[in-house]
Amino acid sequence: MTGAGGEARSVVGDVIDFALSSDDWEGDFGFVTLRLHAGLVDGRDIFFVRTDASDAQVARRDGLVHVPKLAPLARDGLSGELFAFEGAAQPAVLSSEPGRDDYTPAWRLHRVRWQGEPRRLGSVGEVEDAERTGDVSVERTTAVVNAALVKWSTGELAVDGERKEYLGPGQLLESPDTTAMRVMFKLNQCFPGSRAGRAGRAQPAARTSS
Q1: What is the pLDDT of residues 38-89, one digit of tens each?
Q2: Nearest CA among 67, 66, 62 for reference residue 13
Q3: 25: how many CB neighbours lie within 10 A of its CB?
Q4: Measured distance CA(47)–CA(150) in Å, rounded
Q5: Neighbouring C-alpha atoms within 13 Å toward the C-beta of 6
Q6: CA 51 to CA 111: how far, in whole Å?
Q7: d(Cα 52, Cα 59) in Å, to the nearest integer?
Q8: 79-90 burial, b for 16+ CB within 10 Å, e for fewer?
Q9: Contact residues for 30 (Cβ-Cβ < 8 A; gap 6+)
Q10: Per-residue DSSP letter, 81
């Protein structure tokens, strides 16, 4: 979130709603509700949120914050692999999830386009097999996307039912809603003076650049 003169605006296109403070709980923090994205890891459903990208074009197109310093994570095995499908109702395919030694919220973005009849692909291995047979083409990029998993095959991020401290029992205010495809996080102070008083609900603006 960013703003000037007391105005708060969203700089991430996946922000559905936010407020810098709330009278609905005791803690001195607000909330941000983000759009969930569906994915698959080895055939199992996962759900993630997107915030930043190392590539300016990717950030602009997808409404993410451009963070060039993410780029080095594409090297030396510091990022996972995320295959995003174009032109078909197919969830993204990711290479890992929390609980595995190789999990990271940073992912190299690869674009998959169907060359044959679309079908459901559930794992990186299946995507690579489809590429070898010519059923898909894969554009491998060096763009890194910050996309943290909030729900995965064995668990989900913790929900803070107390709502008293920002660094409390969890960073979510509600469990991920995989029907409405949204999730509510705590939102702490974003810039000096933004929390002056408890002036009520801030209305998120349209997508803006960082």
Answers
A1: 999 999 999 999 999 999 999 999 999 999 999 999 987 799 999 999 987 8
A2: 62
A3: 16
A4: 6
A5: 6
A6: 18
A7: 7
A8: bbbbbbbeeeeb
A9: 18, 19, 20, 21, 22, 186, 187, 188, 202
A10: E
Q: What angle do CA 193, 195, 197 make, to 5 degrees?
A: 105
Give the sign of the dihedral formed by CA 58, CA 64, CA 65, CA 69. Answer: negative
In tens, the pLDDT along 121-158 reads 999 999 999 999 999 999 999 999 999 999 999 999 99
Q: Name the 3-class secondary structure at 2.
A: strand
CA-to-CA distance for 188 and 159, rounded, in angstroms? 16
Q: Residues 27-62, buried b or exposed e (16+ Cβ, 10 A)?
A: bebbbbbbbbbebbbbeeebbbbbbbbbbeebbeeb
User: 3-state SS of 8-43?
Assistant: CECCCCCEEEEECCCCCCCCCCEEEEEECEEEEECC
Tokens of 202: 């801030």
Average pLDDT over residues 174-186: 98
Q: Give the model's pLDDT for residue 200.
A: 36
- Specify the pLDDT at position 44: 98
pTM of the model: 0.86
Of 65, 56, 52, give the one whose Cα is nearest residue 2. 65
What lies within 8 Å, CB to CB, of 92 at 6+ separation is: 37, 38, 39, 40, 82, 83, 84, 85
